[in-house]
Every structure is written in C-alpha cells, then in structure tokens.
Amino acid sequence: MFNRILSMLTTLTDRISRRLVNKLILLFTTIIILVVGLLTVISYQMLERESVNHSMASTTNNLKLINQKLEDYLAGIEQLSLPQIHYEEILQAIMNEESDYASKMYLEDYLRELFYSRNDLESIYLYLIDQQKYYAITREAYNITVRSSYQEGIPEQPWYKQAMESRHNQSYQSFIVPGSKSGYVMNEEPSFMGYHRVLRSLVTREPKAVISFYLKPTVKDQILKDVPFENGEHLLYLDPNNVPFHVDEPAFLDQVGQAPWLARLGEDALMKPLTWTDEAGDKYLIVYNIEANGGWKLVKPIPYSNIYAAAKATRNLGYLIGLIFLLISLILVALFSNKITSPLKDLSLQMRRFSEGTFDAEIPVKGRDEIAYLSRHFNRMVRRTNDLINERYKMKLVEKNAILKALEAEINPHFLYNALQAISTKALKSGDEEVAEMVDALALTLRYCISGKDIVNAREELKHIERYLALQKARFGSRLQVTVEWEEALKELQIPKLSIQSLVENSIKHGLEKMSSGISIRIHAELGDTHAVISVRDNGPGISPDRMEQIQTSFRQEWEEQEGENIGLKNLYTRLKLLYGEEAELSIQSDKQGTEMRMMIPRGGSSHV
Questions:
Q1: By the 8 A CB rule, do 470 and 437 touch?
Q2: Which of 11, 240, 380, 500 is most buried, by the most CB atoms less than 10 A from its CB?
Q3: Average pLDDT of span 563-578
C-alpha cells in the first residue's frame, strides 16, 4: 500500500515537473503560502507581545490607582483609632474605669462617637488590659448598644500578639481566612477585616488597652469595583505577609494558597509581572502593585487566553484573507503562465543543442520584451563561449596561485614564532638572559597576535600588555612609566583582542615619542551600570584641536577611504561597532595636561559584557 502511494506521488510529481507552467503555478503558490503564513505568524507574535504589554501597562496603572485608594482608606481607619487630643483623657478614663462611674460613661460616649462617625463599622471593642474587661458597641436589631463584659484569653489571640509586637502598635486581622476568630463573644463573626490598635501610657509606655474596629466590606467593595474584570480573571488583596483580605472567588483562594509566586511578590524592585499555571493547566499573567508605605499588595491574575483573544482573532482573519488571496493568485498565474512559457519553448530547444556541444546554435529574435532580450544575450553567450572557456582556464590558474600564496602567508608567522623561540634558547645557552627575555616577550606577543580569537578576557590582554610594555621599556627605559588599576573581579571581562594595546600604543606614539622627558600612562577599568569602561590616560603634551578633529572625522569615514596615521584607532572603533553595536563607544579627551582614551563596552547580550 505504501509503495503504491509513493508510486502515485512520484508519477504526479513527474507530470507537474514536465511543464514550466505547472512549475510556475507551484512556485507562486508556495511563495504566497510562505509569505502569507510568515506575515500572519509574525503579526500574531507581535500582537501577542503588544497584548501582553498593553494588558500589563493598563492593569498596573489601574491597580496602582485602586491600591492608593485602599491605602487612603486604611490610613483613615488608622487615624480614627488614635484619640488625638483626647489621648490623655482616654488613658485616664481607662485607668480609673473600675472605680469611677464618670470614667465608664466617658469611655462609652467615646465609643459611641467613633461608631457614629462612620457607616462601615460593624462593631468596636475596647479591651482594658489590666482589668481583662472589654467595652463593645454594636448594632443589634435596630438599636445601637454599648455593653461591657469580662473576657479571658484575649492576650492569647494572634492579632493581640501581633499588635503588641508591632513597632506601630497595630495589627490587621482577615476574616476570609478559614478559622479566623475575633476572640470576643459575638453574635456573628465579622465578614471582612479587624483593625487593632494598642493604647499605651505616655509616661511608662505600658500597654493599657486595645481598641478594635471590625469593618464591613462596603467601602472596600466600592473601591474594588473600579477594577475591570473579564471572564476567568481574579483579584486578591494581601497584607505585607501575604494574608488575603479580599478574594473574588473563595475557591480560587485554595488554589493560590501554595502558589510559588506568592513568595516572589515584591522581590524585583521593578515589580515585573509573574506567570503561573494552575492545577487545570490554565496559564496566568500575575500583575500586581505593592503599596509604598504599608506594603499592601493588590494582585490580579489574568488568563493568557484573555490576553491573546484579540491576537488569535486577527490571526484567523489573516489566514482567511491569505486563502482568498491564494485562490485569486492561482487563477492569475494559470492565465499568464501559458503566454509566458510558449516563447520559451524555442529557446529551450536551442539551449538543448547548445548543451550537447553545438556552439553555433542561435535563436531568431522577435520583439523587444524580456524573452527577446534573453534570446539576444543567449546568442551573444554562444559567440563568446570559447573566449569564456579560455578565461576560465586562466582564472583557475590564478586561483591556485592565490591559494598557494595564502598557505605561504599562514606558514610565515608560525615559522617566525618558531625562529624566535630558537633564538631565545640560543640566548639562554649563551647566558644573555635579558636578550632571551626580550625575544620570549616578542615571540609570545607574535603568538598572541596571530591567534584566531576576536574577543579575549581581560586577563589574557593584560598579560599581552605586560609583554608589550617590556619591549617598549627596553626601547625607552625609565622614560616610560605605566600603572595598571584593574580589579581581580574584572579580569574575566570579555574585550576585543589588542584593544588595550591600541590605546597604549597611541599614548606612546603621540605622547612619549614627541617628548624628550618621560611620561606616565595609567590603565584603568571599572564596571558601570550600563557599560564596562576601560581608560588609558597619559600626561603627554596632548592633542591639538585640529588633530582631534582629524581623528574624529576618521571614525566617521568608510574603511576603504581610511588613510593617514589613524589606522589603529579606526580599526579599534570599527571592531567595537561590529562586535557590540552602536552602544559601544571609543572617546578621546585631551588637553595640555595629557590625553585620556575611553573604550566603553555595553553590558548584556550574547556578544556583550
């Protein structure tokens, strides 16, 4: 069965390939499919990225605005918990409550005043620590009642311990977490949040009471309704310890309880979004905002299916348009291919004769179209065949000669290196160690220069510079002083080969060789936020403005136009741009106190630092 199908495909392919018109139809069909498919895929990927970026930007701004409103809301609750100018009177009433009836009335009136000041309070509790007694104001049926009672076990409550340990003397308690209890005797546990504030003595700083506000979710829901929602999206409101205070679906809270991204919220200073895949395999983009002062977090997981919905619709539309375009193109190609291919039959016949060795095969030229142009040039090709054969023979000879020259050029540097090593050995045997060291330095310098690497680490380059300077000091003696300021951690820095030598060589050429006295050269490297900066500074006579302009102009010239004395710096400038892109830079600063050349290599990327 398989052989039969293969035979049918072979026969079909053979029939298609016999006619040029079929090949043209197949060619243009393939091109159209590739172009339309490629453009659709590229546009889909771009739309995906744009959709993610747009969703991130809009959601982040929205969460920031909503979180600011929630921050203001919590700041208002915190402000409400402080007695302000009546702080001393409140503390005095708390300490005298057990024996003074007026103090009891003062505390009750104070709680009523707080309760009536807002409409989002379910209840207020004032726990007197020394008496283990509390006052509570709640709305029971249609009445606002104040009652008092003794209560044990409050100091064992988690929220109480957190408030006592807090440097802000406060704690928040979430009631959407399963098992959360207020610790007080209540008709019904609160549904949203508890805020607890420790009241301390101004003199001794001893805790005297804890005031607790149990809040309704009305204000919170009013604020959070401004967050736009689509199907599958969720919203979480977390405290700095990732305790949830709001979740749009309680079932979703069980899924994210052990999610790894919870612990990573806020790790990145830029608050980059995170990704998460739930148990059902749905992938989410986690966009969040962290409130600057208290660290409260507003988190919105967005399904990627929602983000990519518009991109998928555009992709499908692109496929449909491409299919329509393909059908129209096939009809047009079929109509015009026959008109194009018929004049080519005569040309193909004469070309077959030419391929069989009949070099006098010429075609009658009719018309002035492209086929006539092709026929004329075919005839010209036939007439020049013998000349081309002879020229080709000569080119083969030249090519072989060039290959031999290239092999010879490759052998010469290695021969020179081996010869230098032999001279060094001879000098050592003769006891002339200084000459041996110079020859070794020259040999190693040559070996380093002919190595095939374009980029080396700084450690290798500095060793090469050490050998290069040894040769230069043999020439200039004490007139040349060089200091290297290069941290050990930066010696693994990847830099272009011979780059530091080009900078040092320029200082020697334009500084030391133009002075009768000596100069000092400082080689320095440092790692900045965006670039690795390598500088070579000398205290030579400096570079004149006219000369500086010539050097800067040479950087902007094409390499073929380059001439003069700036070949080394132009070479380094061009290599930096080729290796690292436009972010790399070679700058020169000069004055009467000397010249400083700075090579800046960008950080990041496969070819960068």
A1: yes
A2: 500
A3: 74
